[in-house]
Amino acid sequence: MARSGFESLDLALSTVIIPSFSAALCIESSAFESLVLSIGWNDGLAGELPHTIDHGVGQPPKIRMSWQGSISDLMCLAHEVAHAVQLQLSAGSFMPPVARETCAFLGELALIYWAKQNQTDLAARLLQVWREENQRYFGDDCALLRTALAEPESAYSYRMNYPLARAAAVVMWCAGADLQRLFNAGSEAMNLLPLARIADVVGLSQNYLPPLPLPDTDHPAIDAYRALGAMALLDIDFWNGESERRIEDYYATLLHHLQNRTAFIALDEVRRPVGYATWRKATGDNTVTLTRQAAPFGDHLLLQKALERHLGQNSDVQAQHPRSARQEQVAW
Known about the structure:
The chain has helices at about 10-25, 30-35, 70-90, 95-120, 120-150, 160-175, 180-185, 195-200, 220-235, 245-260, 300-310; strands at about 40, 50-55, 60-65, 265, 275-280, 285-295, 315-320, 330.
């Protein structure tokens, strides 16, 4: 059993839970400490799962869990404290289970993020627990949810809420959402969850493109035509695509980038195209401005990492997003 380094629950609360939560929820540390100190605590019974009990408006919630000082205990503590704080901040307004568990998973992410900034060894061990638990949440629990969707007569299990809640927590954390607003929301919380965005990601089609052959050094023109075809196919599937442009303008733009070596196609492990980027170079320095990034199958991170390696660490990379409030944003 991996140890957290916190032999007492009180030490874990004061050392990592209170500072990580107060930062994530933008609540002044002393005010957040008061919320935590008002929580009631009971040791969990043998074999009993940790849980938080709502005693109603005006009564502090109570957490039941045993503390052995393991990394799993620390992650569990973050989860249950998030439940208790959500109950306090929403002031008795009932929160649907998916939103309630989203708050709890955001508590875990707040702890991990704080540890990455302050205790990197602890962060690595917390991340290991997070990944191990993903196997349950997106494995058995996801199977329960799929069965319920396919068979309306199947029995309800609370664990059906976990896959969607965990996905929602990750999306909200990565987007920098207003977490305190969610914790306060109570019965309105479902309106704040990024359900449409999750549905969009789940609905992305699988990569159907064939692998690209290895570069043909004897026939570079063939490679260029293959690259043009690959970028066109990627654009056809990309929602914010260029496939609506006049064909001669579209072709001329891509050909210009190929001729100037300002186009890059990212490939997966079997050489299927997963996305492409184009850019323009500034005169006299290493600044490049990305003019397009298209990854229709959801491989945005793979595209960015591959592009970063291709351009090199010495490049100052800017990204243009025409639909953004800011026209230029730093990439990566």
